[in-house]
Amino acid sequence: MTDGRILGHEGIGVVEHAGTGVSEFHTGDKVIVSCVTACLKCDFCKRGMYSHCRHGGWILGNTIDGTQAESVRIPHADGSLYSFPPGGDEEALVMLSDILPTGFECGVADADSESVKELVEQGNAFEADAVDGVENAKDPDVSEVTTREVPEDDVPEEYRNAS
Q1: At 112, is the pLDDT very low, low, confident or very high (cuts 50, 70, 90)?
Q2: C-alpha span between 3 and 69 (Å, rounded)
Q3: In this structure, is residue 101 part of a structural domain?
Q4: Alpha-carbon gap, residue 153 to 160, rounded angstroms
Q5: Domain range spanning residue 15?
Q6: pTM (2 decimals)?
Q7: Are 126 and 81 in a shared domain?
Q8: Is the pLDDT confidence value at 125 over 50?
Q9: Position 119 pLDDT exceeds 90
Q10: Euclidean distance between CA atoms 136 and 128, whole angstroms
């Protein structure tokens, strides 16, 4: 990493200026900034493996200044930004910027039904629910994701927030 590089690779912001190659976003649009930039044209992007994009990927805060700056340039904006829904909760939706897509890509690539079965046999319903949710995301008929509150007593100690 270059000395003086500004870190950060996730966020929510407002478009101040859109370049001539940007067709999906305009000045004033509130957006969710993806943790990876995706050109949508290379072989990896066409396979949905955006973090491996040959012309982007994990560049924010790495090879270009990141989102902890006062302003940030987002290459390949049409493939790297998402419209912020009206009335959306910033604290909840910032999760869509990094944590959810990272978990989804890693989980979909690695999860399998045997993992779920093994976790259930070990009595770990918390992990089984998580892996099963990722496994279901592979199903092309699944069009939404549902989350639920898990009672703290059901969450294994290693997954709880340290106080």
Answers
A1: low
A2: 15
A3: no
A4: 10
A5: 1-93
A6: 0.64
A7: no
A8: no
A9: no
A10: 12
Do 79 and 125 fall within a single domain? Answer: no
Three-state SS letters, the chain: CCCCCCCCCCEEEECCCCCCCCCCCCCCCEEEECCCECCCCCHHHHCCCHHHCCCCECCECCCECCCCCCCCCCCCHHHHEEECCCCCCHHHHHHHHCHHHHHHHHHHHHCCHHHHHHHHHCCCHHHHHHHHHHHHHCCCCCCCCCCCCCCHHHCCHHHCCCC
pLDDT in tens, 13-55: 999 999 999 999 999 999 999 888 999 999 999 988 888 899 9
Q: What whole-number distance in Å separates Cα of residue 71 and Cα of residue 65?
A: 9
What b/e sequence results for 137-146 when a residue is b if at least 16 CB atoms lie within 10 Å of its CB, and e otherwise? eeeeeeeeee
Mean model confidence pLDDT for the chain? 74
